[in-house]
């Protein structure tokens, strides 16, 4: 690597990295109920310099296997799409995985930043990544963010023209995983749909009042599915994090450019959706076959 | 059919059928937030006799295709496991599917009974049916119902001894459908588990504080799954209604005996889980392949 | 019947009648807590035509005697000023009169429409009918409806000039029934009043902060009456529905014109206020004498 | 005055009178939401003796005419069945009648005591007085008071055997005023009733779940009346305070005995129900005729 | 006194005095949770003239010693900075000191007016009096009152330039009492401060988000003090009422001018802060020494 | 140091220390709203041994100066009477002192334990230490803890016999600091008191309904003080933490015995009450004189 050869050790101040992240997707536009931005900042002795960052790990969920990976990779900053602190903490012990993760960050001087709904809303963010599965005639947010530039906001509404079966195939390619479908009453794989509502993650409440032929989201409850089916809306589910995770590979080179190559940026190899769907096999004794990638 | 041959026309009064249903699983033990029992009783002109029942349709969800089937089969009573009226109604028009279903019942003189959590709790009910997938050393409710006989209550906790992979195969056979698995941190298909928590439907809140190696339920959100994984509990998901529907085939002959053969009892052919999981196929142009039965 | 003879079969689509009713008094202006508009729409088989209306029954309250009358008169639409569904329904059985009424409508293919506070607010509606008892110098709503034309809104405030005793006589003629009076401290039958607050039905909360010499409403509690008396406001009570019912006779011909004579319109003969005031007679053994019309 | 002549100056300490009132009907048994007991105690200069009572005025409502009467009669204590302070006071000015009444008591050294629901519940109290209109086979509270002797509690349930018409006549005699009736669906004046629910004042919420052929109370709203009518319960309304006031005449001699004749006890001459029902007269120009006593 | 000599008896109507008080500091600008203005108005017999005022007593708190002083001084109006009625009253007996004070006012025909937060906010009011301890470069409200002239509003923010120790000395002189100090981490008596937040009374919630080197208020809880100390803000506490009381001496001559000398105006001699701080003496047997004036 | 000489390295596992602390004062008896027990447990790498403790720092408040002292003293455990985490945390950055303290503990492998109200309630705890200022005839909790041994519970009520002035002197000696007094109306330094209510810290709500001649607590608001004064209760205030801190010196040797001398135990030298009362000096230019110890 050139930088090693030239002996130039490059790195960034934590505040510089955060400035770039905020320039891409201002956390001020995140949902009111959300917990975003710099969640953990390493301890700084009186008079000490600001925390510096050389290695950054990107992950969708900061599980303990991912935390271990971050320590092994000597990351000084983790960017976790989902905020690892959501329910506020009254204690930080070794009894609960989220408290263990917090203590691991602080004991290993690793900063933690979470963008969550700020990335959902921003142009070029998570929902726009998910929408790329479609040949789009038009796209706009389901709810335009007040005070933000046009195009920023919650969810996306896309005009298109595609048979459902073909869209399912494309979605499986896009998320590199299997898809669950709930056909609307009267729909089949050959039904051509024209409007698609999109919400990465858990989209039922946002999509509730959207008029669309089809919606793509991560997860939805049984009774919500029945409601959409009877309103004439087919639902495609990717599993929660499979509707989000693919964005990280797209963001990695973007962030590299933002930081002018000053940091090494990894996408976690341990981060994956908790669920694997197993095909029902004919012979009961056989091992079940996973229908999706399990890294 | 013997009854036709002998010319004996047999039927039951609605109140007689309800009495038997309540004897099997008293709705007084249903959850406080639930809406159970006789939900629709056909209009009775002043001085008219009580509604009589000859044909009964059993269903997990009273969707519009199932409602149509009930009319075609000339059912006088629908027993729908899930209550079709849950959010209280302020209007009954043709604009919302639940209002259409209610008006269809009343216009066609069809009574509607929903047992829901009363069937979950009762000995020999929905959770006990789901537990049959296991070779059990012991079984007891997660929460024994106060005032009811021992064994009645919410969820089930089972002692057993089985590798996870083998259990998944058995579960696929039992529910006749595919299964989704979230392995606990450290678990694999060959891990032998000893305690299993069971809750048909949506079990996260009930199972939250249960110490078990594995839990079987219908559906669970992403963040709940991560919590179970980090507590050492593998989760098997069947899809919400696939964790419940199989009980109906077991209940059909039981009800026939309870009613002394006085009614014809059908299990709906149109009732099915809204979701189908599609295998990711290699060739993008091909139609996706469903990994589960779609009736 | 003449129409039969001439072979002209006249009737309206339900949506046409509703369109006219909404043109007269848009339900969008009803109170937020109210439950108005089309409350019951008869069941329509898949592919069936829209419900048609030939006979309309107008009533203040949809009691069971009125419901029976509607069936006997073969009404296809009931317009009930008070909404028969107010507390939302979780069941529709034969155990509660409101559930019986709902089931009767649906079993007999009778639509149900309720205007309630939309009719109270509209110019030419219920409060304007009640105000006709006065020789008015001016009239305006107590609360002008935002977004509606001037004159529409809750309650009425009237400038006039009349002794209380004379007004009572006129009110008895107007509502064709007896009146209850609570004289303000210092008022007598010969006190001349200049400002009158009007609110059909139960007007205490709306009238609470109104400065008026006298108010006319349907009913009011004891402690509310004492408050008005001590503020210098005499209260005339008509009984709740007697302050509203007279409007129906005025509305009947109006509706006929709106619908271009396409429907037969009846005012219920069974609808009446639940209360009858009985005169105290001198001889204890005698039957008490009703002081108001009891049909 | 005889007492002056004999030189015997008789009077009671305020605390002595209150002790007797509490012995008759302990205010500890009043409803939690109620405001009962000694509400106003005259100012006592440092070191001054306790307030003494020679003249007591009994009233149902402490209106301003009654307050004036109390001052004229030189009462040192007013016993007002309804508490004149109910909504707590943040100011005591001359702008609101209740504040004027409070200031009048304090400026004129008049104590104020209110028993309200304590008198409703006690054996021999307001509800028992109202029940005397019936020939009783049995009587018991609707809700027995926990911790009190049997027979004390809210409302009364009476077994009897009387045609409604005859009962109405007796009630008119008992309250010395007119009565309003709402016949149950199917009831007429000659229907014989066997169970009667009683609640002086405003009894709808207490009587809501009572199974009775007929109920007697003071006032009830239109929609509550319709509910009772459709449940087979005829309702007799006396007007709120006419269902209570008659008890004062019965209590006057009782209190005299309790206080051993030490005080003069007056029943207010100005206290009366705010409402008067006026008969509809044939000739419009005539003065309306009151159907009830107006003192 | 000149007025006596000339035989001119001067006095004011209560409404005139209130009009002047409201002109100085409109109570419409008081906090929403506050209870201000004319709280007690003496009883006025039917037809009587308005209450007149000759002697006015100013006090910070209307304690019982101050109440006694008011009666002895024959005041017809008490102006109590803190409202003696705050928690609304359900009774007015001799059992609680606030009820005794209310009854004393009404029995002795003394009106009561409280300005409280209206005086805090007004230009020239309580906070401006407290700010006089500082040599000010600039002063403005912490929160400018909407709808009021610039300078009116809650609290004050002052720019200055003074060592903390010197300011403490000045504050002790200004309030004529001892002061409690909580030095910010890093501050000492010689630290020069430039911005000062001021809030008479209990200022923690108002001052919470103010950036200031030092704040002056009356009282503050332990945990609030620790928060300020760690934010770099030194806190000076005067005791609650010592941060307010001095204003009364300044207001006395102002009010005299407003009323054109028509009333005698006294500042209470009995009103004082409840707390006295006692110096720790070396000899245990000695009487402790008060470090502040105790009148 | 002996231990060094003998070469015996003694220390305790964290769980052992906590076991002893819980044996002394079980945190299960702390208030429901409190946040007690092990609040911070240092990060433990997968497979690592449990945290061990050699040096323990006792403090009343974990301020930043005390945190610095803990690091300098190489403490492995801080026992902070007040819980440093009270408002739950959503972030742990370097912007707020409580977050800095939490990060300092985790970065320096220091455990944190807080007993708070568990120590208040226990026999031999903080309130009992405060009560030692009195010559007691009897002592009992204000509220006996349900399920705990007699004597454990909130606050203390003591019977004694002492003039107030003498008690103040003793209290100054006991807390080694100055005292603030609010004399009840009628009390002076020579009044002999017989019942004393005690509540370390902020005791107004607990003491509100206690009948006592005098109460001792840490801090109380102005309006609470006025209420106690008018109820005949003199109040002695120590400043919040001065009513608690002295217990630590008493607890230090106790804990040493509990831990069998296995740990070094320090009482913080930096921990002190935030407030210092300054005597008003006659010469304005002089530095103010602190009336209390400032370590």
UniProtKB/TrEMBL annotation, chains A, B, C, D, E, F:
One of its GO terms (molecular function) is metal ion binding. The keyword Metal-binding applies. It comes from the Eukaryota. InterPro entries: DUF34/NIF3 (IPR002678), DUF34/NIF3_sf (IPR036069). It holds the Pfam family DUF34_NIF3. Belongs to the GTP cyclohydrolase I type 2/NIF3 family. A divalent metal cation binds at residues 82, 120, 240, 244. The gene is Dwil\GK24701. Keywords: Metal-binding. GO terms for cellular component: mitochondrion. PANTHER family: NGG1 INTERACTING FACTOR 3, NIF3-LIKE PROTEIN 1. This is NIF3-like protein 1.
